[in-house]
Amino acid sequence: MNQFNLPVSMLRQYCFCPRIPYFYIARNITPVEKEWMSQGIEEHKRQEMLSKRRNLSRFGISTIGKISFNVELYSDKLSLHGICDAILSADSELSIIEFKNSDYDKFTMETAVQLCAYAMLCEEKYGEIIKQCFVLYGSKGKTRKVNIDASIRSKTLEIRDHIIKNLKKADIPPSSAEENKCGQCEFFNFCADRF
Question: Residue 100: which CATH number?
Answer without folding.
Answer: 3.90.320.10
